[in-house]
Amino acid sequence: GYHRRLFEYVSKYHSREQVSGLLLFCSSYVLHIVESCSSTIHLIIRDLASLQKQGPSALLREIKVLVVAHNIPTRLFPDWCATVLTSPVTRPQDSTQSQSTEEMVAECLTLLFGVAACMPKAGEDDSEDANDSPQALATELPIPAETIRCLCEAEECASPGDFLRMYLSPVQPALDS
């Protein structure tokens, strides 16, 4: 309900550019890909930061912003959709420990791109509910649970509040450079 209301608000009042993406609910994790203009993404990150300020009673905790990219030539998702998946895949814990945060983020993005490739593209299916159907997606989250846990604990991945502080801070290049 929270995410649906947020995206209805964004679509209605910040409609400079269509919002598309994917929201995956999986046991104790929520993964969210948002495709839109930077002002809409900034609004969503601000809302997530306000959620984290609620402390232990917050709807979502340990929120991390993995990647924010601009000027992407094509969208991966035809619409914004949400689905519930079963538990993440598992793999030996020591394989994750040997990876850097950058490698884990790249792995997550690659696996999520695979999910996007399985989704029906715009014009392929005219039914309104095709994108909201769990059958349109894999039933198991392809990202290993250990990778998600490591990324939630990684200092390199910013919380929404940290991301906003960096985003709103002026850049101070060294005068010698």
From TrEMBL:
InterPro entries: TEX47-like (IPR055308)
Protein name: TEX47 protein
Domain of life of the source: Eukaryota
Organism: Chauna torquata (Southern screamer)
